[in-house]
Amino acid sequence: MRRAFALAVLAGGLSLAAAAQVQRSSDYLSKMDSDHDGRVSLLEYQDWLSYAFDGMDRNHDGVLSADEQPAGKGKPITRAAYRAQLAERFHKQDVNHDGFLSAKELAAPPQ
Ligand SMILES: [Ca+2]
Ligand SMILES: [Ca+2]
Question: What's the whole-model pTM score?
Fold first, then answer.
């Protein structure tokens, strides 16, 4: 499931929108919410999506090269750059700026 989600995320240019059509946001929340406090912190968000990154990084060099990306092309993405992109996305999606994503915020990815 995580791999399918990651493929959707990368294929959609890190868009959660495509993935959200596959599964309900409340399910995402419960999967990402590793400390079970009912909200997703930046670390939980990054860790969950980085797990997917690691699944695709077949030679484990910390870089998704073109051939490791779903489309088989694109600029290489480092793990650090990927996490930075996720952080940027997280902050955009955190509409009320409380530093956490609620189920409602998760359900409404930034355009
Ligand atoms: Ca949490
Ligand atoms: Ca790699």
Answer: 0.68
